[in-house]
Write a structure and sequence with these properties.
By secondary structure, the protein is of the alpha/beta class. It has helices spanning 3-6, 27-38, 56-68, 85-97, 124-134, 154-166, 180-192, 209-219, 225-232, 238-259, 273-282; strands spanning 14-19, 44-47, 74-79, 102-106, 138-143, 171-176, 199-203, 263-267. The chain has eleven helices and eight strands. It starts with a helix and ends with a helix.
Length: 283
């Protein structure tokens, strides 16, 4: 099912999950978690890969498992940083030959150690322009309620999202956030500027206190000190932290649903339990 079909039913709330290739290569455990996610009949499952295309082959193996065995709509990540046109062209063919119809089009993170970094594609916009001319794939894009770290302002960032929409993007998935007000403000500005594509909030149920601090450091996501204090109470208990993460994410999602969002995209960290319990709490 294509993205345009998945989000065409305005009365139905959709759920999607994101996973990544395990660093230790243990895909068997991931497949067990994916089977649990699959029981929720998600709208789609997205699969990431590392900076500069690292882990791409493992990522594609996960995509094949999802499509051929779990029979679920799957959306591979498709990054362009440090890639030349030949590489992108071949990757398009590889994706299409698998029968994939949807991708998440991103600039991607620049790898730390690389001898040659091509500059054929400087941004996600460059990639989307190329896809529009050379592919039948439908593409989702990223959105940043608190603006992209490299953007000069939120308005500039929303202007880029508007350009992505004009180039055919079907849906936008947001960076993780922990303050719903930032999403509400972002959504309202987008609407006023003419953005009509579905904007799907990205939610990450916290399962580890140190992970929460690392997310904030890496992504630049803003977080209220009260939220840090909330999770700090449970930092010495893995189980209590998971339960607290489920409770916090459930409240977030309930408020987002009341706001009128069309779907929720869960950053699962390759663990099914928390996202599944959140879904159980809100439907």
């Amino acid at each position: 099912m294509k993205l345009s079909e998945i989000y065409s039913n305005k009365s139905k709330l959709t759920f999607s999950f994101e996973v990544f290739p395990p660093k230790n290569g243990d895909t068997q455990n991931l497949f067990k978690e994916l089977a649990k996610m699959n029981e929720q009949k998600p709208a789609l499952i997205s699969v990431t890969y590392g900076a500069g295309g690292s882990n791409r082959n493992t990522s594609l193996n996960i995509v094949k498992e999802l499509k051929n065995n779990l029979k679920q709509p799957v959306m591979p990540h498709f990054t362009c940083v440090c890639s030349n046109k030949e590489y992108i062209e071949n990757y398009i063919k590889e994706i299409e030959n698998l029968g994939i119809t949807n991708i998440l089009a991103l600039r991607g993170d620049e790898p730390q150690e690389i001898e040659v970094c091509y500059r054929d594609f400087k941004s996600a916009l460059d990639l989307i322009k190329y896809l529009k001319k050379h592919s039948e794939l439908e593409y989702a894009v990223a959105a940043y309620p608190e603006k992209h770290p490299k953007a000069k302002s939120l308005n500039q960032d929303i202007g880029i999202l508007l350009k992505k929409q004009s180039l055919g993007a079907k849906v936008a998935y947001t960076q993780v956030f922990f303050d719903n007000q930032s999403f509400y403000n972002f959504f309202d500005i987008c609407t006023k500027k003419g953005i009509t594509l579905p904007i799907i909030p990205g939610i990450m149920p916290i399962i580890n206190y140190n992970q929460l601090k690392r997310i904030v450091e890496l992504s630049g996501t803003k977080i209220n000190p009260k939220v840090i204090q909330y999770f700090e109470k449970y930092k010495n208990s893995k189980e209590d932290t998971i339960k607290a993460g489920i409770e916090f994410a459930s409240i977030q999602c309930e408020k987002l649903i009341n706001f009128g969002i069309k779907g929720i995209h869960f950053y699962t960290l390759n663990k099914a339990r928390s996202s599944i319990e959140v879904i159980g709490n809100i439907i």
